[in-house]
Amino acid sequence: MICKEPGDYIGWPTVARKDDGELLAVFSGDREAHWCPYGKTEMVRSRDDGETWSEPETINNTPLDDRDAGAIVLRSGAIVLSWFTSPTWDHLERRRERAGDRAVDAWRRHCDKITEDVRQRWLGQWTRRSTDGGVTWEAEVDSIASAPHGPSELSDGRLLYVGTAKLGGRPALASVESIDEGRSWQVIGEIPVPKEDAEDLTYYEPHSVELTNGRIVCLWRYHPKQPPRDDAYMRQTESDDGGKTWSVTHPTPMWGYPPHLVRLHQGGLLASYGRRKAPFSQRACISHDGGETWDIESEIVLRDDAADGDLGYPSTLELAPGELLTVYYQIDRPGEKTSLIATRWSLD
C-alpha cells in the first residue's frame, strides 16, 4: 500500500526516481469519486525503494478538477510534473446514477460558483517544474498536449510529449517538444491514423520512449466508439526523426489501457497497462526487438484480483537490472474507494 485516503478516491499515478534514489509517486487524490470537481495533484515519497511511503503532500489545487498526474526526473535533476484539468460541469448528469442525487447536487453547487473567467483560465493541460526535489514548484505552463504519464526526455536533451490536443480548434494526436526543460512547448508533428479512424478519433492517453538507436516508440489507448467495442488492443506508432513524423497507427496484441513504457537495462522494452475486463488485472508485456513484436504469449500478470474495472494506469520503474516496481490504483478492500498500491517483481 502506497497511499490510502479513507473515504476518498485516488487515481492515475506515475512513479519517478530522483538522482539520490528517492522515489516520487504523483496522483490525483482527495477526491470523492472517479469524476468529481475536487481532485488535487498529490505526491508521496519513499526513501527505501518503495517499502514505506510518506504522507501525501499537495502540489496542485486549482479551482477545477486536477487529474492524471505524470512526473519525470530529468538528467539535470529538475522534475517536470504534468496534469490536466477537467470540465466536471459537462459530466454531472451522466454521473448522477453512479454517484447519487445528493453528491451530484453538491458538485453542481460547487461548479456553479466557478465563474466563466476562472474556467477559461484553468481549463487545459499543464506542466510545471521543480529544481529542489519537489519542495517548491514553478508556475504552470500550457503543455498543448496531454497524456497520463507525461513527457519523456530524449538523448538530445529535448522533452517530447505525445498526447491528445486541439490544434486550430480541431482534435488531434500531437507531438510537442520543449527545448528548455518544460518551460515552454511547441508543436512539431501529428500522428496519422488509418482512414477508418480519421473521422471519429478513438485514440487517447499515449506514452512514448526513445530506444538506443534513436527510434521513438509510442503506444496508444484505443477505445472504439463503434462496434466492435471490445477492440481495446493498444495501437502503436513510431518516429525516426525525433517526433516530427510518425508511422500510421497499427494494432498490437496487448488488450488494455493506458500504456506506460520503460526501456529495460537488459535491452527489452516493457509496456505496463490495466485490463478493465474480467479478470480485472494489472499486466505487463515485453518486446525483445524494439517494439517490432510483443511477447504476448508470455504476458505478465502482476495481479488479477481487482474488484472491478476502475483500476490501472500502472507506471513502472526498474530499480535495479531486472528488479521492478509498478505503481497503480485499484480498490484494496470491499466497500472502500480506490487506493494507490505497488507491486515489486523481477524478470528472472
Topology:
Blueprint (H helix, E strand, L loop, with lengths): L8 E9 L5 E9 L8 E7 L10 E4 L4 E9 L5 E8 L5 H8 L1 H12 L3 H7 L2 E6 L10 E2 L9 E2 L5 E9 L2 E9 L7 E5 L4 H4 L4 E8 L5 E7 L10 E7 L10 E6 L1 E7 L5 E7 L5 E7 L12 E4 L8 E9 L2 E9 L6 E9 L2
Helix pairs in contact: 1-2
Continuous helix count? 4
Spans of at least 5 consecutive residues with low confidence: none
CATH-derived architecture: 6 Propeller
Count of beta strands: 23
The biggest beta sheet, please? 4 strands, antiparallel
Strand order of the largest sheet: 1-2-3-4
Mean pLDDT value: 95
Radius of gyration: 19 Å
Describe what this molecule looks like in 3D.
The chain has 348 residues and is mostly beta strands. It has one domain (9-87, 123-346): Neuraminidase, CATH 2.120.10. Helices cover 9% and strands 46% of the residues. The protein is built from four helices and 23 strands. The chain has helices spanning 92-99, 101-112, 116-122, 195-198, and strands spanning 9-17, 23-31, 40-46, 57-60, 65-73, 79-86, 125-130, 141-142, 152-153, 159-167, 170-178, 186-190, 203-210, 216-222, 233-239, 250-255, 257-263, 269-275, 281-287, 300-303, 312-320, 323-331, 338-346. Helix 1 (92-99) runs antiparallel to helix 2. The protein is globular and about 55 Å long. The mean pLDDT is 95.
